Amino acid sequence: MIPGDDNLIFAEESGTAAAPVSDAWKILIVDDEAEVHHITKLVLANFQFAGRRLEFLSAYSSVDAVGYLEREHDIAVILLDVVMETDDAGLRLVKYIRNDLGNNTVRIILRTGQPGQAPESRVILEYDINDYKEKTELTAQKLYTAMIAAIRSYKDIITIEKSRIGLHKIIESSASIFELQSLRKFASGVLEQLTGLINVDRDAMYLGMGSFTATREGDGFVILAGTGRFENGIDQRLETVLHPEQLSLIQSALQRKSSSYAMNHYIGYIETKTGSQNLIFLEDCPDLSSLDIELINIYCINVAVAFDNIYLNREIEDNHRELIFTLGDIVEQRSMETGRHVKRVSEYARLLGELAGLAEEQVKLIQVASAVHDIGKVAIPDVILNKASRLDEPEFNAMKEHTVIGSHMLHFSRRELFQAAAIISLQHHERWDGTGYPAGLKGEAIHQYARITSIADVFDALTNNRVYRTAWSIAEAAKYIEDNSGSQFDPELVKLFSQHIGKFLEIQASFP
């Protein structure tokens, strides 16, 4: 080789046949001499590392190189000449890569045929490069060795960066899933976050991947949320949607009580402190690395804590629900003629809430909270509560106090359920035209929960026997509510009630 010449001359070396590979390491050759590109590709034609061959990209100037770098974000190594369109074009490109593009992962091997233009001691110190080679010393074997070192370094950096991004995603997703209190929404959120986690630094290769979360119910597992082919499997048992070999993998995981990755399937086993068993299943994900699996396992630890949080919250809600209905039943037992008034009103309020477009959580809230709309009647004397004739004015004034008494009774808790129940108890006798009690509220100043409960309460009261009168017919009760639209009742809610009266009758018929 002539000193200062940019041409490369390599001794011939025997190569081995290339094995099939899944993808390739991208190598960007940046040099203004076409012969350099040709010889470099020739020498490295059979190169392999970690089962992957090389994909060569050729740039003949720093401008060409910038184009590649802005389009291709997974270039592993740059073989970079110093002197091209200018004496320091290569060095300027290094600064652009590191400072402007912010690319600190690509490995840069500086190659020069004119070391005087870029002395090694200065370049290594001032520029963020990873290797410096004079073309006079760069034999085929040394180029091969330099490439091995550079790609190994790149692979390690990408692994660390992927781990960092993955852990960051776990932190982000954990924060969001802890906010989901609905078990089904939580299960769906887990799958969404998990898909994003294993797509880190990949193309969207798993977008069609089938996955699901399931929870134990009785002697089996039921799917809570699914993607891919499992989207239509919600509420179904696993044995109805999985192949026998997949069921076998899940049974093995359940017996070991641990997560596993086998036959390109990941089974995440999650047992919470409350004793509930849950599964995360990923189907057909053939190239999960040990890092992928470790990230998923870490994520599943957080998911287990979130599952615990939801189950404990559900237990608290169930206890509160039971308490609310028990309180309602206490009032009902004092009014012997009302029968199952509390539970019917609860179901009517649920239905009307759904028809009014309330959110799912609000519908659940009004369904339970409306059950204690008359809780204040526990303080009303029996002689007034069960009087068979019309109440006189002092008795009626005493009866009206049950709204305020009930509200005070329910304000002991700041939980949303009890706050909603307190509002309903206080306002369910207010009227749309402002002539109701206890505060004479008008129109939308009356809380929607109370406006809904008012219709549910009156409809049930009219269609069931009371000590002071016999039950009205459905037609008579419906006409009363329609006639009082805009005076006693919210006209929009009355319209919904009338349009769907058949559904209210179905609820009524479901009670013996």
Offer a few descriptive terms.
5-stranded parallel beta sheet, 512 residues, Beta-Lactamase, single chain, Rossmann fold, Hypothetical protein af1432, 49% helix, disordered N terminus, alpha/beta, 5-stranded antiparallel beta sheet
- N- to C-terminal distance: 102 Å
Cross-sheet strand order for the largest sheet: 2-1-3-4-5
Strand segment count: 10
Write the CATH fold name of the largest domain.
Hypothetical protein af1432
Please write the CATH class name of the largest domain.
Answer: Mainly Alpha
- Class by SSE composition: alpha/beta
H/E topology pattern: EHEHEHEHEHHEEHEEEHHHHHHHHHHH
Give the helix proportion (percent range).
40-55%
CATH H level, superfamily name of the largest domain: Hypothetical protein af1432
Can you tell me about this structure?
With 512 residues, the protein is α/β, with parallel strands linked by helices. It folds into three domains: 24-160, Response regulator (Rossmann fold, 3-Layer(aba) Sandwich), CATH 3.40.50; 179-307, Beta-Lactamase, CATH 3.30.450; 335-509, Orthogonal Bundle (Hypothetical protein af1432), CATH 1.10.3210.10. The chain is built from 18 helices and ten strands. It has helices spanning 34-43, 62-71, 89-100, 120-126, 140-177, 183-198, 244-256, 290-334, 341-355, 360-369, 382-385, 393-400, 402-410, 416-427, 448-462, 474-483, 491-499, 501-509; strands at 24-30, 53-59, 75-81, 107-112, 131-134, 211-217, 220-227, 260-262, 265-271, 277-282. The strands form two sheets. A five-stranded parallel β-sheet has the order 2-1-3-4-5, sandwiched between helices. The protein has a five-stranded antiparallel β-sheet with strand order 7-6-10-9-8, sandwiched between helices. Helix 9 (341-355) runs antiparallel to helix 18 (501-509) and helix 15 (448-462) runs antiparallel to helix 16 (474-483). The longest helix is centred in the middle third of the chain and has 45 residues, at 290-334. It is elongated. The model is unreliable at 1-22 and 200-209 (pLDDT under 50).
